[in-house]
Specification:
Blueprint (H helix, E strand, L loop, with lengths): L2 H10 L2 H6 L2 E4 L7 H11 L3 H4 L4 E3 L4 H14 L7 E4 L12 H4 L5 H17 L4 E2 L23 H15 L11 E7 L18 H8 L1 H8 L4 E4 L3 E2 L2 E2 L4 H11 L5 E2 L8 H5 L5 H11 L4 E2 L3 H11 L5 H17 L12 H7 L3 H12 L3 E5 L14 E4 L24 H9 L3 E4 L26 H16 L3 E7 L18 H11 L4 E7 L7 H5 L3 E4 L7 H9 L66 E3 L3 E2 L3 E2 L4 E10 L5 E11 L10 E10 L4 E9 L5 E2 L5 E2 L3 E8 L5 E8 L4
Parallel strand pairs: 1-2, 1-10, 2-3, 3-4, 4-5, 5-6, 6-9, 12-13, 12-14, 14-15, 15-16, 19-27
Antiparallel strand pairs: 7-8, 11-16, 17-20, 18-20, 20-23, 21-22, 21-26, 24-25, 26-27
Helix pairs in contact: 1-15, 7-8, 7-16, 7-17, 8-10, 13-14, 17-22, 18-22
The chain binds alpha-D-glucopyranose.
């Protein structure tokens, strides 16, 4: 349909029908069984007359189910405007790859883009039109469970992934024929919740928001994302959902975004809870005026907008504007021409969980596994000479390697670690659980198909599990210990105050290590855990994240050397929880511990913990070793219209081929405002054969040095800069240059 056709269609709609397009309800409302529907309707308190007019569906996935709901809806619809199906397809649909904090460690946006193209095809075949992805929340606090969905603590790197995911999901952008629409979230500042506590208050100035939290969202808007979801939190004491500065002045007017804004789940109703609306009508009015087009899963729009318009309290133009945006999106998706978008059960089964998709997920997982320790190069293991391996721990035979937000994936599709290792070792392996993930799951709260276990293991049962594991370890050459967080301990509403692994797991590892065997630890988690004591009780340590459907096989590939690990962490790992929030691109403060002129005590530090991270941003080990040559600059004077080249050679001095991630950081030594000690500005992912040397170069221009200055203008300032190149944010060579005055 043309724009003109859409406007004509809009003119034919009643006010109720227009408001209907602004309502999103879950699948249980779209049933022909009125008795079934009564429950959810009563619970939501929604006007039953509006339910049949709702324009979009939340989290229903599957060709048959979506087809059935669409057909039934259209059969009863006067206007015949098709339903929009939106779902949380966050890091895979049926074929699940590593969590975003995991895949971001690959420093391989091109591969990430391929994974999201694959995801878009699976989701499209399953009748999904929109995915609520990517989550672009900068994550600097590992206590916050949703760092699982983030691509880390650096805004520039997160912007690369933002583009990769949006263009992966939306493919060429011809959404009528390929791909699904991307809904980026949660705009904005959500990762900065105080104390890392979910849904908590966010307090930060506009400059910090623009400098650190906006860039990934801006990159996604520039990449053409079709929808934006505001965050639950406040910005400058106004909830994002009703924040006109954020949604209208910045997102729409400054950035030119004219797509659909959909609230987060129940967020409009929560404006009353926040205390910025006195009732649902006030909440509806505030959200619509701020620019929120669709109300996800509350009755605020449904029960109030028509009355507010008729009372003259809300302009019908606002309803028309919002409705037209929704119609445009449906039109872009080709729904008017084909509400079913060539989905069918056959297309679905032909597209999902294919051999190719599994292979891609496996490759993504292989590039996401971070080798944190490898003492005496104990890894990779030589499968030819191994006589007996003990695989112990709560993740030894655990299918649930998908992470919390693999909403539509099935853990049963994922081989366990035991299965994957058995494929290599055959009967040369003994498995023993050793202990449960948690002794007490009661505080977790269930989510979707993940329920909390009320099973209490007796002391005797726990002792038996432990003894079985120690027996297996005693008769093994090598012990692999698979530990980790419970899947419900991270992701949404997964905030923690103690980032260490559960005590029962740490005790098991300590007892195993005391046996004097070679111990390799694998950690499955949705965040950077505190591994300070774990590190002392093992010879090799791998952060496996929640690695997805093929994650176990990817772990096996790394353990036995079929793959040389190349991942580098994108979020700092702390010594202790108390260091959080912890991030590399921090300010020096007036009393930096290492360089302050004050006595040691009176510097920015702790009396009971190091200041640095246990593992810094950009860190990770590989099986190969590289020598970095001397860093050279083409000039020490960069003119505003010129460019400067930084170069250094990297040589693989080992007998193994491998990938190296060479990282470029820059520091603005003096600015009109305080500037971070370093900021990632580029990287090169290079492949080096044994003995091969490569000259790595970076081109620096004035544009890369711009920031939000004291007067809130965006630009660079002349003066001294440090340029750093190295294998991670701490292990760098430093050179200095000057940005000259603009003539
Ligand atoms: C949740 C999350 C959001 C998700 C939405 C729909 O509360 O905040 O990320 O997309 O609801 O499930």
């Amino acid at each position: 349909m043309t724009e003109n056709d859409l406007e004509k269609l809009l003119e034919t709609l009643t006010l109720e029908e227009k408001v209907g397009q602004l309502i999103q309800l879950s699948g249980d409302f779209f049933t022909d069984d009125t008795a079934l529907a009564v429950g959810p309707q009563r619970k939501l308190g929604i006007d039953p007359a509006m339910v049949g007019l709702a324009g979009s569906v939340l989290n229903v996935v599957g060709a048959e189910k979506t087809h059935e709901i669409q057909a039934s809806y259209l059969a009863k619809s006067r206007h015949k405007i098709p339903l929009l199906f939106m779902a949380d397809i966050i890091y895979g649909c049926k074929t699940i790859f590593p969590i975003p904090l995991g895949f971001s460690s690959s420093w391989d946006p091109a591969l990430v883009n391929q994974c999201y193209r694959m995801t878009a095809r699976e989701a499209r075949a399953m009748g999904v039109h929109v995915s609520f992805a990517p989550a672009l929340d900068l994550a600097r606090d590992a206590r916050w469970g949703r760092c699982l969905e983030s691509t880390g603590e650096d805004p520039w790197l997160q912007s690369q992934y933002a583009r990769a995911v949006v263009t992966g999901l939306q493919e060429s952008g011809d959404l009528a024929h390929e791909g699904i629409a991307s809904c980026i979230k949660h705009f904005a500042g959500y990762g900065a919740v105080e104390s890392g506590r979910e849904y908590n208050t966010v307090n930060m100035g506009e400059r910090h928001l623009r400098e650190m939290y906006f860039p990934p969202f801006r990159a996604a808007v520039n990449a053409g994302c079709e929808l934006v979801m505001p965050s639950f939190n406040v910005i400058d004491d106004v909830p994002s959902t009703a924040n006109t500065w954020l949604l209208k002045d910045v997102l729409r007017d400054e950035w030119g975004f004219d797509g659909v804004i959909i609230s987060d789940y129940a967020a409009i109703r929560e404006l009353v809870t926040h205390g910025v609306a006195s009732d649902d009508a006030g909440a509806a009015e505030s959200a619509l005026e701020a620019g929120v087009d669709i109300d996800m899963k509350t009755a605020c729009y449904a029960n109030n907008l028509c009355r507010l318009v008729r009372m003259g309290k809300v302009s019908e133009e606002l309803v028309d504007r919002a409705c037209l945006r929704v119609l445009r999106l449906k039109n872009k998706l080709g729904l008017f021409e084909d509400p079913y978008r060539d989905t069918s059960r056959d297309v679905e089964s032909a597209c999902c969980l294919t051999t190719e998709n599994r292979a891609l997920a496996r490759r993504m997982a292989e590039e996401s596994l971070v080798l944190l320790e490898n003492k005496a190069d104990i890894l990779p293991l030589d499968k030819a000479t191994l006589r007996n391996v003990a695989l112990i721990g709560p993740y030894a035979e655990n299918h649930d390697l998908l992470g919390l937000w693999a909403v539509h994936g099935d853990a049963s599709d994922a081989p366990t670690l035991g299965t994957a290792l058995r494929e290599v070792l055959g009967d040369r392996m003994t498995c023993a659980q050793g202990c449960p993930i948690l002794v007490d799951e009661s505080g977790l709260g269930s989510f979707g198909h993940r329920s909390v276990s009320s099973e209490e293991k007796t002391k005797e049962e726990l002792a038996r599990l432990r003894e079985e594991a120690l027996d297996a370890a005693r008769s093994a050459d090598v012990v692999i210990v698979a530990l980790g967080e419970h899947p419900l301990q991270s992701g949404e509403a997964g905030s923690k105050t103690d980032l260490r692994l559960p005590q029962i797991q740490r005790d098991l590892l300590h007892d195993v290590h005391a046996l004097g065997k070679s111990v390799i630890v694998l950690v499955f988690s949705g965040r950077p855990p505190v591994l300070t004591d774990i590190r002392e009780d093992c010879d090799a340590l791998i952060e496996a994240w929640f690695p997805g459907t093929e994650g176990a096989r990817a772990v096996s590939d790394v353990l036995f050397g079929r793959v040389n690990p190349s991942a580098r962490i994108t979020m700092s790992f702390p010594y202790a929880t108390g260091q959080e929030p912890l991030y590399y691109n921090a300010f020096t403060t007036g009393r930096p511990q290492k360089t302050s002129t004050h006595t040691e005590r009176f510097t920015s530090r702790y009396v009971d913990c190091p200041t640095d991270p246990l593992y810094p941003f950009g860190y990770g080990l590989s099986y190969h070793h590289c020598r970095y040559g001397e860093l050279r600059l083409s000039t020490q004077k960069l003119s505003p219209e010129g460019e400067l080249t930084a170069s250094l050679s990297v040589r693989n001095t080992s007998s193994r081929a491998g990938d190296e991630v060479v990282q470029l950081y820059i520091r603005d030594v003096t600015g009109s405002v305080v500037r971070p000690m370093k900021e990632l500005k580029g990287f090169r992912r290079i492949h080096l054969e044994p003995g091969e040397e490569c000259l790595v170069t970076f081109t620096i221009t004035e544009r890369m040095l711009r920031f939000w200055r004291r007067d809130m203008s965006f630009g660079s300032e002349p003066g001294a800069f440090e340029l750093m190149v190295g294998r991670n944010s701490s292990d760098v060579q430093v050179a200095r240059f000057e940005l000259l005055e603009t003539r």
